[in-house]
Design goal:
Largest sheet of chain A: 6 strands, mixed
Largest sheet of chain B: 2 strands, antiparallel
Mean pLDDT of chain A: 77
Helix content of chain A: 40-55%
Distance between the termini of chain B: 15 Å
Number of strands of chain A: 10
Mean pLDDT of chain B: 83
Number of strands of chain B: 4
Radius of gyration of chain A: 38 Å
Structural class of chain A: alpha/beta
Largest interface: A-B, 71 and 64 residues
Oligomer: heterodimer
Order of helices and strands of chain B: HEEHHHEEHHHHHHHHHH
Number of helices of chain A: 14
Chain lengths: 398, 348
């Protein structure tokens, strides 16, 4: 009897032997399935070779068995390659889109206004700030042209001035390149980072940190600005000296109004919704979704007092109040300060939907974003609160 | 395979670090522009510090993610997904708010003294580590079903716990003056300081090194711990002790990274998976690989964010990692369920 040829010596079975080894491109699952199929086929092949004598038939059988497994493995490999190709194409598309949107030299990016400004025309001293309240004060004093670095929230600083970060996250490189002489900061919760202070000292940047929770602190800020610009307040003076004198007058008027308001009586028997009451009891809202009201110990409470209102909330801070709590308050008016015209509309709608029992109090909504930061601008525009209230009273009488 | 994997990671890290060093706002006669530039002097130092910060924080998060994935035998575990970052963030927020109140309550200047003094950095670190460890302990307790951690329950517990801690942080924001409310929000977006507090950076690097050594020394036991408890016990591994080590290593590393850079998401999740793909499942290679992959991802993210300015300054690094890592997480989740990988503990 002719000896049985070793099936593995045949070209087709060599292929099988090779496919037993996991291919580098093949996933572990694919190779496991393949080798499992291969071992099953080998077992069947061995049993058949014992019972048959015709080696040609055996090989044909083996070939028939092998074909699906080999096809399956190659299909998996092809799928894996296609999947890899798809991933690469997806990655390239994402990178391309990112470049198109934000990349240097992309057609879309070229159309955008440059976000980092020229500084050569900026008059000295150069200042940078990370606080909207500080930049508002600089704007009121006519010093915005000196600003070479801002926070993303400094609305009155031209967009072309580079953003050097916010309270907590400084972009040190832009700060170094902007080269301000002075950096005005409202210290964050953790205080000014000593490392940032050291960096500024090393680079000749004077750090002025000023808390801004009250108008006494705003006054201290104005003093710091006057020192920075080496200018003293001078009534009738030109430029900054005159504007500083105007600021002094604003503070003096504010203090006088506060003192006068404190002396005013509060006759509780006066009728509601009239301007006759010396100090109308008001609830001051800065947001209507949810209702966020002004409590004591902050600059808006000080503004309310100076304008002759009595803040009905006797708690500290900024308080979220429920609609039921608002309607339960015995108040003469709801004063609301909105950041935009749209915000004012929303506030009016929200206040009108409050379920008042009996006569509803007067509601006055004023669109004045400048009142939402303790700056000189807020002080200069404080009269809008009273004017808005008087207007609402007049309308309610009509 | 390992050598090739390490070389690939090292090469990408070098390229990313070079990119970060070359990209930045460049000064010119007509102003400042964002461009490629060869920095020198102070600018070079700032960019190197940024690369160093990103590399160290990335390595810390990568190691933390690996420790947690091994501890919980869950490929979806990471400091962010399990709520540890949120817990650490809440710890830091507590320290910041309480510290601010204590410092300002003793102010006798009538509110006009601008300087409130800086909070010692170590207090933030302690707050973060405590917050992170508490979060890990809670999520580990709630994710346990019998003797084992159920992967889905763990992730759900982590997500819910993260929401609770985030709500706690939002609640704390109500206690600070209106003008400072953005402070916590800004901190939660993550940051990579170019002017690092040297002592804090050195501490972070030292703790990361200790964590690295602990994990490398435990590498053979970590391999065995991926098997069933019975198999691991029969191999002579003290699972209780090993889990304690992994628990503290993962929690402390995540906490200290959050204290330094804020909660940066998805680096701890994607880093170990990237390393596993390039280096295989053995922890002897996976530990340095995860550290390297974490560093690669964060340095690359830092380089990319320099190029993205939507008019409000460069993009916060945490926003970028979340934008890129979120889809990666979903992909891993889908892949894990398709392959039943979450049951085996490994998603390849």
């Amino acid at each position: 009897m002719a000896p049985m040829p070793d099936p593995r010596e045949t070209p087709h079975l060599k292929l099988r032997a090779a496919s037993d080894e996991p291919s580098p491109e093949m996933s572990p699952e694919a190779s496991a399935t393949n080798s499992h199929a291969a071992s099953k086929t080998n077992a069947r092949t061995n049993s058949r070779t014992n019972s048959r004598t015709n080696s040609r038939d055996v090989l044909e059988d083996v070939l028939d068995d092998l074909e699906p497994a080999t096809k399956d493995a190659s299909t998996r490999r092809r799928k894996a390659r296609v999947g890899y190709l798809q991933q690469m194409i997806g990655f390239a598309v994402v990178v391309g889109l990112l470049w198109l949107l934000f990349g240097q030299g992309s057609p879309l990016a070229k159309q955008r206004e440059p976000t980092i400004a020229p500084v050569v025309e900026t008059p000295r001293p150069w200042v940078a700030t990370t606080s909207p309240a500080i930049s508002d004060t600089l704007w009121h004093l006519g010093l915005i042209a000196h600003v070479v670095g801002r926070s993303p929230y400094c609305a009155r600083v031209p967009k072309a001035v580079p953003v050097i970060g916010d309270l907590r996250d400084f972009d040190a490189e832009r700060l170094a390149l902007a080269k301000p002489d002075v950096l005005f900061v409202q210290p964050p919760l953790a205080g000014v980072d000593p490392a940032l202070r050291t960096f500024c000292e090393k680079n000749g940047i004077r750090v002025v940190e000023q808390r801004l929770d009250s108008f006494a602190e705003t006054r201290a800020l104005v003093d710091q600005i006057a020192r920075t610009f080496a200018t003293e307040a001078k009534s009738g003076g030109d430029g900054l000296a005159g504007r500083l004198a105007d600021a002094e007058k604003l503070f003096a008027d504010f203090e006088a109004a506060t003192a006068q308001s404190a002396l005013a009586t509060d006759p509780t028997d006066a009728p509601r919704n009239t301007a006759t009451r010396a100090r109308p009891k008001v609830l001051c809202l800065v947001s209507a979704d949810p209702f966020l009201a002004v409590g004591h110990d902050n600059y808006l409470h000080e503004l309310l007092t100076a304008e002759g209102f009595e803040n009905t909330l006797d708690r500290e801070g900024w308080i979220e109040v429920a609609p039921e709590a608002i309607v339960a308050l015995n108040i003469d008016a709801v004063l609301a300060i909105a950041e935009s015209a749209r915000g004012a509309e929303r506030m009016r709608a929200a206040i009108s939907q409050l379920p008042w029992t009996g006569a509803s109090p007067v509601s006055a909504v004023v669109e004045a974003p400048q009142l939402l930061a303790p700056s000189l601008m807020a002080l200069a525009d404080r009269g809008r609160l009273r004017a808005s209230y008087e207007r609402a009273i007049a309308e309610s009488k009509r | 395979m390992r050598t090739r994997g390490f070389l690939t990671l090292a090469l990408i890290l070098i390229v990313a670090a070079l990119l970060r060093t070359l990209i930045g706002p460049a000064s010119s006669d007509d102003g400042l522009r964002l461009a490629f530039s060869i920095p020198s002097g102070e600018i070079l130092w700032l960019r190197s510090m940024s690369v160093t910060s990103a590399a160290v924080v990335g390595a810390t998060l990568g190691l933390s993610g690996l420790a947690l994935q091994t501890l919980l035998r869950n490929p979806l575990a990471s400091p962010f997904v399990l709520g540890i970052s949120s817990g650490a963030g809440f710890g830091v927020a507590c320290v910041l708010v309480v510290g601010y109140m204590l410092r300002t309550s003793g102010d006798t200047s009538g509110g006009t003294s601008g300087d409130i003094g800086a909070l010692p950095w170590a207090t933030e670190t302690i707050g973060a580590v405590v917050g992170g460890s508490v979060a890990l302990a809670i999520v580990s307790r709630f994710g346990r079903m019998g003797d084992n951690h159920n992967p889905t329950t763990l992730v759900l517990a982590g997500v819910i716990l993260g929401s609770i801690f985030s709500a706690g942080t939002a609640l704390l924001e109500h206690l600070v003056p209106h003008g400072l409310r953005g402070d916590l929000l800004s901190w939660m977006a993550g940051r990579l300081p170019e002017i690092p507090n040297t002592a804090q950076l050195i501490t972070l690097a030292f703790v990361t090194l200790v964590g690295f050594v602990v994990l490398v020394r435990s590498a053979p036991a970590l391999d065995v711990s991926m098997l069933s408890d019975d198999e691991a016990h029969s191999s002579g591994v003290d699972l209780r002790r090993l889990r304690g080590t992994l628990f503290w290593t993962g929690g402390v590393l995540a906490g200290i990274a959050v204290a330094y850079a804020g909660p940066i998401s998805f680096i701890g999740l994607v880093g170990p998976h990237l390393a596993r793909r390039l280096l295989g499942p053995h922890h002897a290679a996976l530990v340095p690989g995860a550290a390297l992959a974490g560093a690669v991802l964060l340095v690359a993210a830092d380089a990319v964010r320099q190029m993205i300015d939507l008019g409000s300054g460069r993009l916060p690094v945490g926003v970028l990692t979340a934008l890129a890592g979120g889809p990666a997480f979903l992909w891993l989740l889908r892949r894990g369920f398709q392959q039943g990988g979450h049951d085996r503990g490994v998603v390849r």
